[in-house]
Design a protein that fits this description.
The protein has about 280 residues and is of the alpha+beta class. The chain has helices at about 5-15, 25-40, 45, 55-65, 70-85, 190-195, 240-250, 260-280, and strands at about 40, 90-95, 110-115, 120-125, 135, 140-145, 145-155, 160-165, 175, 205-210, 215-220, 225-230, 230-235. It is globular. The mean pLDDT is about 95.
């Protein structure tokens, strides 16, 4: 799928970018930083049992209609934007590891690589606790704002890399294969498991995240956390209006496809699940 010029401009306006520019590292950095700020990583569709697609047209329309999603939606849409802008960009299978999940390349995550001749940059706007800018694929430490990462060869397989996350993040790191996928069809079944399976980690857990150079914001259930260089602060969301205000003011999430009744149902489910967690 090739985005039209109008679609490219609408996408860029969503990112608060007014004009197209020729492909460059500077423009790529601007796009990446704006993406992780203005388009949050979120699990609304899974939490509300709404079926979504990660086909290219659907991912693009999702973002053009002031909505959002998680890794497969966000990186798929960005892939087509970067292609339309003239960047050389490729698709790569990835896997997230946490305290409860070993390092892997299971394909439940996807990353992108942008190529400037022989120089390659890892691009990923679908991580939640995400890098602020593209990451030069070169072994060693990386500092972005107040967050620190480290890039090393993967221990899972050859021709792969591992991005170790900042200690403040909710997961330990991500492994990416450097072998290219031809398209996003490999990830369709993975998305179906995340979105439909009873074992999906987000079926009963609403998570919304974004970041800037100075701050990472996370709504997890009824807890809103802000992380800065000075540490973290956490408050409990205690009303529907407070929830709506945080989503709008912090995450630029307008809930434009949800009715007032549906927003009320989201709030009631959020309260129920939070009470279960408190009492567990």
């Amino acid at each position: 799928m090739q985005l039209t010029k109008e679609e490219v401009l609408r996408y860029l306006r969503r990112l608060h970018i007014n004009e197209m520019e020729p492909p460059s590292l500077s423009f790529l950095q601007t796009i990446h930083e704006a993406h992780v700020h203005y388009i949050p990583w979120q699990t609304f569709a899974i939490f509300t049992n709404r079926k979504t697609s990660i086909h290219c047209k659907d991912c693009i329309q999702l973002l053009l209609m002031n909505q959002s999603g998680y890794c497969f939606h966000l990186n798929h849409a960005l892939f087509h934007l970067l292609q339309a802008l003239g960047f050389k960009v490729t698709i790569h299978r990835a896997g997230v590891h946490t305290n409860n999940k070993e390092a892997n390349l299971d394909g439940f995550h996807v990353g992108l690589i942008v190529h400037f001749d022989e120089i390659r940059y890892l691009v990923d706007v679908g991580l939640g606790d995400m890098p602020l800018h593209p990451i030069l694929i070169k072994e060693g430490p990386i500092q972005q704002g107040f967050t620190n990462y480290n890039l090393t060869p993967s221990l899972v397989q050859a021709n792969a890399i591992r991005l170790t996350n900042d200690p403040s993040a909710s997961y330990l790191g991500v492994d990416y294969t450097l072998d290219e996928e031809n398209d996003f069809r490999y990830f369709y079944d993975k998305h179906n498991i995340y979105s439909d399976s009873e074992t999906s980690p987000w079926r009963d857990l609403l998570v919304v995240k974004n970041r800037t150079a100075s701050k990472i914001n996370e709504l997890k259930g009824a807890l809103f956390t802000t992380i800065t260089s000075r540490g973290s602060q956490q408050i409990e969301v205690t009303s529907k209006q407070m929830l709506v205000d945080i989503l709008h003011d912090v995450f630029h999430e307008k809930l434009c496809t949800y009715s007032e009744q549906e927003i009320g149902e989201i709030w009631l489910k959020l309260q129920r699940e939070h009470a279960k967690w408190v009492n567990s």
